Amino acid sequence: MLAQVTSALALLLAASSVVAKPVTVKDSPVTMSFARRMNVTGGADILKMDRARATSLKVRSSTHGAKTKDELMKNAVGAAFGVPSTNQGVSYVVEVVIGTPPTTYDMLVDTGSSNTWICCEIDYFPSNTSFDTGNSVYVEYGSGVMLGEQYLDVVHIAPGFTITNQSLGVALIAEGFDGVDGLLGLGPQYLTYGNLFPDATTYVPTVVDNLYDQGVIPKPFIGISFQPTTVMNTTNGEITFGQVDQTKIQGQINYVPITETLPSAYYVGINQTITYGNHKTMVLNNTAGITDTGTTLLLLASDALATYQSLTGAVLDSDVGLLKLTPAQFANLQSLWFTIGDDTYEFTADAQIWPRTLNTAIGGTSDFVYLIVSDIGSDGGTGMDFINGMMFLERFYTAYDTLGNQFGIARTAETFVSVN
Ligand SMILES: *[C@@H]1O[C@H](CO)[C@@H](O)[C@H](O)[C@H]1NC(C)=O
Ligand SMILES: *[C@@H]1O[C@H](CO)[C@@H](O)[C@H](O)[C@H]1NC(C)=O
Ligand SMILES: *[C@@H]1O[C@H](CO)[C@@H](O)[C@H](O)[C@H]1NC(C)=O
Ligand SMILES: *[C@@H]1O[C@H](CO)[C@@H](O)[C@H](O)[C@H]1NC(C)=O
Ligand SMILES: *[C@@H]1O[C@H](CO)[C@@H](O)[C@H](O)[C@H]1NC(C)=O
Ligand SMILES: *[C@@H]1O[C@H](CO)[C@@H](O)[C@H](O)[C@H]1NC(C)=O
Description:
There is one protein chain. By secondary structure, the protein is an alpha+beta fold. It has helices at 2-17, 43-57, 69-81, 207-213, 302-312, 327-331, 390-393; strands spanning 30-39, 89-98, 103-110, 117-118, 131-140, 145-158, 161-175, 182-185, 196-197, 221-226, 234-241, 250-257, 269-276, 281-291, 298-300, 315-317, 322-325, 336-340, 343-347, 369-370, 373-375, 386-388, 396-401, 406-411. Helices cover 17% and strands 37% of the residues. The protein starts with a helix and ends in a 9-residue tail after the last strand. The active site is at residues 110, 292. Residues 92-410 form the Peptidase A1 domain.
């Protein structure tokens, strides 16, 4: 399996190095505004979606060897039935302008998958900029499934920054994606392998690959910035393409190689150690997991979560679905420390809690403080023992450098703020 990833990677690196390098590249980063939208009645919904996703990330999606379009359709319908019955959740979205005439789609941002597709409320009309490849595209997400037809078309990432012939799935079935018009896949290109039908042995260049190959950005690189927020819906973040947005970080950005441990190695996976409190008590000892914009909470292996619970005294609120503390316990909550590469990042007590102004939005009360540290659903040792979801990423600036096969993290003005 590892050899597979490594050789896929080597192929991709070789492929990118033969591409003629661009003449003009923008000096400052190409950016997109990044918004959060919440449609929940309970924290249990958020956890359910996150866990379903964690489970599916451990098994890479593909067309599962379908031999005919009928089989593919049956797979999709079957998988759609497996989707959690609620569409409620927290979505991190960007606006992307696609096609001719230019049409705006609100798309989920997903570093855990790599196909880009559009759906639902907004019709897609093939035009003189589109090309029908004759392929179908199929992707399973745990909290959803998508089957569509593949087109190539223009995509406007930001005003003045356009790519042509971007692969797009135009969905026939998109289950589990209410309230958005598609998904922008920002993960590594090798995750697209096996998602086309009948052309099942090809890779599909991602939006980031095309931005790079077509000379719009200096390297295939994304930066994620999102400020912690205490309201349900806000446009509080930014995705940077091609380079770090220096205005968003404090100090240096620290890079570590993408982990070699499967299945985390398929995603924006890293090795990380987590300790708790002033005595730096071990919670997770140098293990692999991922950072993921498609996950809301900070998920830890069940045994690591049990350690965290015993250190903090947190108990599960089965109605809300999250761990909770009394205000007195919260007053004693200490920092988590994330060692990533040579640096250790403090994740403060304030960072570990659900915004108290939104307690009722998740079915909680003002008598308790709810925690965003949650259970991934299995003990450690799976090769994906944590997911640093958006509520972790909100405290830092993080970067994914596809060509360098590395992850970067920097502190921001929000790393230590108390807002929750
Ligand atoms: C937030 O956005 C969601 C999804 O678009 C919507 O259902 C909800 O009503 C919005 N909530 C608020 C408070 O605006
Ligand atoms: C495509 O069609 C649009 C009008 O629909 C026109 O404005 C544009 O010039 C055409 N582009 C090309 C490349 O033919
Ligand atoms: C897009 O791809 C199609 C099919 O490969 C090709 O015919 C067309 O020339 C390409 N368009 C551009 C602008 O590269
Ligand atoms: C919000 O959730 C409800 C219940 O699952 C769903 O019917 C509705 O479509 C969702 N709305 C949005 C905007 O996502
Ligand atoms: C990550 O941890 C694994 C298991 O301890 C180890 O094999 C690997 O070399 C470490 N580093 C990377 C970059 O994967
Ligand atoms: C963490 O793992 C390393 C290597 O396996 C081991 O030497 C060390 O004792 C462990 N630390 C703790 C606190 O468990």
